[in-house]
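Per your request, structure below.
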């Protein structure tokens, strides 16, 4: 078993999120958030303002005219994209590196996370229930715990987890058996450290187990992860060794046809979205 206290200390020294991102996450958790609240959360952060104006005028956003104010950028991009973009820009360099303990090479974890976030953001177009704006960000961060746990994956640990998985154990359960915790729980701890709202923390912690006290946010992140895995993006050592909830898509009102359309939409948008985060 790993030293949980030591890992908790590692999380405690993670760089904090800017105050603007914290305010955005709190606003995005409200079902009736007003545009003015988002503008207030952004406008005093000069770097974020510049990034959002660039994003609002990008090919990705499909802007038909030049956007030159924060309010216009908020209207154009929407709460989900703004929170996800602000968080992603902050963590891009960290998440784009290799995560060898999970057999994920350069950019593979980042690309998987981004594909999952795109799927979570797109689900609202196909679902019959309202999807919280924070789904994009929760999905973007759902596997962040792998980066932290990777520090404790010696060759012996990797071998033990792999052996259990090969014997039919779910990968996340194998992590728990060997380490005493798992990447989803550790990702939730990181989200708590960044003071994200509890519903977003729960969606990260339960992205493999959405049927625990289910809600639309958890279901969306779980389904989005399945979409990214189905597309073969960032499989790593975990591969498809996970339990897909049969009830989560049903609760969201997703059919087999809408799931296929969702996969296709992610493939179309992923290259442009990747390119957007590369802009300095």
């Amino acid at each position: 078993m790993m030293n949980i206290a030591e890992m908790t200390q590692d999380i405690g020294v993670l760089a904090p999120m800017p105050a603007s991102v914290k305010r955005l996450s709190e606003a995005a958790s409200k079902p009736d958030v007003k545009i003015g609240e988002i503008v207030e959360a952004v406008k005093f952060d000069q770097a974020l303002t510049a990034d959002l104006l660039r994003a609002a005028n990008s090919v990705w956003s499909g802007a038909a005219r030049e956007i030159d104010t924060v309010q216009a950028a908020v209207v154009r991009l929407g709460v989900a994209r703004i929170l996800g973009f602000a968080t992603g820009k902050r963590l891009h360099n960290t998440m784009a590196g290799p995560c060898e303990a999970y057999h994920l090479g350069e950019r593979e974890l980042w690309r998987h996370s981004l594909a999952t976030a795109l799927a979570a953001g797109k689900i609202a177009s196909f679902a019959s229930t309202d999807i919280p704006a924070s789904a994009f960000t929760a999905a973007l961060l759902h596997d962040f715990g792998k980066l932290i746990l990777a520090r404790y994956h010696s060759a012996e640990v990797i071998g033990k987890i792999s052996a259990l998985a090969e014997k039919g154990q779910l990968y996340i359960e194998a992590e728990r058996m060997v380490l005493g915790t798992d990447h989803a729980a550790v990702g939730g701890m990181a989200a708590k450290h960044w003071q994200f709202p509890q519903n977003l923390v729960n969606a990260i912690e339960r992205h493999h187990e959405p049927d625990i006290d289910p809600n639309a946010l958890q279901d969306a992140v779980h389904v989005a992860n399945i979409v990214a895995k189905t597309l073969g993006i960032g499989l790593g050592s975990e591969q498809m060794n996970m339990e897909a909830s049969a009830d989560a898509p049903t609760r969201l009102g997703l059919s087999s046809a809408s799931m296929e359309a969702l996969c296709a939409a992610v493939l179309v948008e992923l290259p442009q979205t990747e390119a957007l985060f590369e802009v300095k």
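The mean pLDDT is 89.

Regards,
D.
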